[in-house]
Amino acid sequence: MTKPFLLEIGTEEIPDWMIPPALEDMRRRFEALLAEHRLGGQVSWVDATPRRLVLRADGLLARQPTRTEEILGPPESAGEPAVEGFARKWGVRREALRIVETPKGRYYCLRRKVPGERTVDVLARVLPGFILDIPWPKTMYWTTKQGPRFIRPIP
User: Fold this and answer.
1) Domain shared by 58 and 15, yes or no
2) Any domain includes 57
3) Do 59 and 91 belong to one domain?
4) Phi and psi of 37, rounded to 5°?
5) Tens of pLDDT along 5-30?
6) CA–CA separation, 124 and 131 (whole Å)
7) Do 17 and 86 reside in the same domain of the chain?
8) Percentage of residues of the chain with pLDDT beyond 90
9) 88: left (phi over 0), alpha (psi -120 to 50) or beta
10) Distance CA 19, CA 50 (A)
11) 31-81 pLDDT per residue, tens
């Protein structure tokens, strides 16, 4: 099941000449964000007024797909205590490990399935940084010089 997504950033008035580059950057970076976090979908449009930046994406997955990851452990020559420790660290039995050939030699490896996160949780985590990373020719300090910076205050 796919879902639409709308991001609307309300601000104080932004100079009109700064808006088109910001929108293009939002489009490009949000497409990269969707790919990086395996959320599916694509940006369908971006638009703005002097007090609003808007991005719409369609086809986002409700959850990231489950993925399989391989975790490389100790080399085959490391001995039983190292192999047992590696298995214990990942909460599996020693029998769940297999040996794989790598350019460095033969290593124990754990293959496990990692369930995907809910899209809403991923977006809640990454969107604040995404918004603050929109490049502007000139930004304002909100609290201190180390605090968040943006073109105008976000009410």
Assistant:
1) yes
2) yes
3) no
4) -95, 10
5) 999 999 889 999 999 999 999 999 99
6) 12
7) no
8) 74
9) alpha
10) 8
11) 999 999 999 999 999 999 999 999 999 999 999 999 999 999 999 888 889
**86 in the same domain as 60:** no
Say yes or no: 6 and 59 in one domain.
Answer: yes
Amino acid at 99: I
Q: Is residue 58 in a domain?
A: yes
Residue with tokens 């298995």: 87
pLDDT at position 149: 74
Percent of the chain with pLDDT over 70: 95
Domain that holds residue 16: 2-64+116-150
The neighbour count for residue 100, using CB atoms within 10 Å, is 14
Whether residues 120 and 145 fall in one domain: yes
Q: Answer whether residue 155 is part of any domain.
A: no
Q: CA angle, corner 124, sides to 122 and 125, nearest 5?
A: 65
Tally Cβ neighbours within 10 Å of residue 60: 19
**Tokens found for residue 5:** 């997504």
Identify whether the C-beta of residue 109 lies closer than 8 Å to the C-beta of residue 98. Answer: yes
If one counts the domains in the chain, the total is 2
Measure CA 112 to chain center: 21
What is the C-alpha separation between 95 and 116, in angstroms, rounded?
A: 26
| C-beta separation of 78 from 106 below 8 A | no
* 114 token code pair: 């990692």
